[in-house]
Amino acid sequence: MRHAGAGAALAVGALLVVSTAITLPDSWSWTSEQREAFSNVDVQPAVVFRYQQLLPAEAVDFVRRRVRAKERYFLLAGGSGDVVLGVPRQTAARTFARYALLPAVQVADVEDADVVVAVGADPATLGIPLERVERDPAETGVTVARIAR
Amino acid sequence: MTRLLLLQLLFLALGAAALPLLGIAPNRAALLARLPVAYMAGVAIAGIVTAHLALVGAAVGPLELAVLAAVVGLVAWRRRPSNRPLLGARRGRPTGVVGLLAAALLLLALLQVAHLTHMLETRPLYEWDGWAIWATKARALYSFGGAYEPVFGNYPPVQHPLFFPALEALDFRALGRFDGTLVHVQLGLLGIGFAGALWTLLRERVPALLASLGVLAIVSATAFVQQISTNYADVPLAVMVAVGVLCLARWLEDGDGSLLPAAALFLGAATLIKPEGLLFAGAALVAALATCGRARLRGTLLAVAAVAAIYVPWRVYAAVHGLENPEYSLADALDPGYLGDRADRLGPALRSVGGHAFSLDWGLLLPLTIAAVGAALLSRRRRLAAFATVWALLSFGGIVLVFWISIVPVELTLQWAAYRTVASLVIGAAALAPLLAADAWSTIRIRGVSGGRSTSPTSRPASAATSSGSQSRTIDG
User: Fold this and answer.
1) Is there a contact between A22 and B371 if contact means CB atoms under 8 Å apart?
2) Which of B124, B340, B380, B466 is the most exposed place for a label (fewest CB within 10 A)?
3) Contact residues, chain A, for B385 at CB < 8 Å
4) Ramachandran angles phi, psi of B307, nearest 5°
């Protein structure tokens, strides 16, 4: 019994060594490559690689200057197709805006909103009364429209 | 960056102050010996307190944390130190070649996590859930000072508890700004803290070489390294689960009551990180109740009550605000008709979860844990083997069940989540492996190795370590 136990323990030790031998070189080199890839990139703290195209940094600044903290906005997104597996572009744009436009608050229904933020879409298509419609002069395709009350 | 590092010192101070108060380190010697656990304990306490206070709109920053650490430290200092010995802390300092090897392997493990942390300093938010869920919620907590209802009642997934974003919001308050890049450093530091805590808790009962090998195998796993870099909560959850499960196993095996509060603390923190945290913590507590025996029943029930007490405020908040999981309801798991209608999901779920758990991205962590269960059985550590097996099977079954009852198309949900949901299972199981194999390991003798007298006679079985002659010795390190 003791020999069998010692054998099993030796097997555990051997498997620990083999496991580390399998993963450590890959983990180390992956980490080094990531460091190399990102260390020369001038990263703004709030920028998200790969998805920033959904709402460019200039567009975020444009909206932030017009929508105050805790103000409620409805995001109208145009475009079609999936951005990533199973996530349609419109859903992706809404999701990204939730992150990027904080501390403004996104709402699901336009009836609850103070402002419409349109990305690649025309806010007039919502068929609600709007006032002060401002289109981003940087031609990011973003429009901010205040809902008339 | 300096501010972020100073915050980590606050976590360490809070944990060091709390260890005596919780009975985890009943005296100064124990506090020194278990100091590496203090950082993880501090993170857990800070996360729990910050997450709960966020529910009532109260923000916690470094100042509040410093006051909390000072108050806890003062209370701990005024209490008389206990003379109760630590039942597990029996091993001496490793010596000789094996000791050097153990030290080198531990150093390599820490170097690996330090290398990772150095990289994370430059890594921006990149993966979907990293920014879409976790950074968004952390940023909202930082911006609003608490769980502002229009955000936390509506931004999906509303069912996620707040420990992880609350911890990151604390980082932002320390930094004085939102920073989606530097926040990754917190994850790397958590990895370092995990390595230190795991080694410390293992080393009290496990030969140093085995403990070091175990820690190195976990922190060098490709999946560990890559997933912790994503700002997803799965690896932070996994490290809390792993340390909690290990403390619980030590309580069951040694009857070391000083680790019971630690188990409750870490498992309680796990319930507040992700909904699956409740699954893994619940599985651990059920496994403990099933294997604890009459002598340890009261202590185990106290741990169950403590974990429940940590979890309840979030559950109350979720109930009051109607925050439900839109993807599945656990009640469906009890409905045979519902399960039968979705039986076609079971096969893919089993294959995918099993495949990811045994993926080489985790190295051989699960196969070696199975071997370790065998070693525990052969060295008559049946209670420990039973606990590990029941916990792992319940956890595995729970993961599969969640994919089975989910309403999300099975191929999508498996592709999105299966590879990372297994992190707690794999890391938790691997954390137990050295403990499972420890007694059997102590019976191994190497012929022809001389010198480097072992100063650490093992506690059990005593015969294994004390009979070494000049030509043979145990591999204790």
Assistant:
1) no
2) B340
3) none
4) -65, -40
At B359, which helix (H) or strand (E)? none
Q: Cα separation of B368 and A12, whole Å? A: 5
Residue window 216-235, chain B: list those with CB within 8 Å of chain A: 216-217, 220-222, 224-226, 229
Interface ipTM:
0.92
Distance from C-alpha of B335 to C-alpha of B340, rounded to nearest angstrom: 9
Name the DSSP class of B388.
Answer: H
Question: CB–CB of B225 and A43 under 8 A?
Answer: no
Q: How far apart are CA B183 and CA B1, in angstroms?
A: 10
Q: Does residue A105 sit at the B interface (CB-CB below 8 Å)? A: yes
Measure CA B164 to chain center. 14
Burial class (CB in 10 A: 0-12, 13-18, 19+), B341: exposed
The amino acid occupying position B142 is: Y
From the CA of B406, how many Å to the nearest CA of chain A? 16
**For the segment B292-326, what is each residue's pLDDT rounded down to a tens digit?**
999 999 999 999 999 999 999 999 999 999 998 88
Question: Mutual orientation of helices B35-55 and B2-22 as an angle, nearest 10°?
Answer: 100
- Quick one: tokens of B64? 């509040």
Two tokens, residue B450: 């001389």
Q: What is the pTM of this model?
A: 0.91
Instruction: Residue B164: name the closest of B196, B135, B201, B188 by CA.
Output: B135
Structure tokens at B170: 């604390």
Rounded Cα distance, B249 and B204, in Å: 13
Question: Chain-centre distance of CA B106, in angstroms?
Answer: 18
In whole angstroms, give the CA distance from residue B315 to residue B298.
Answer: 25
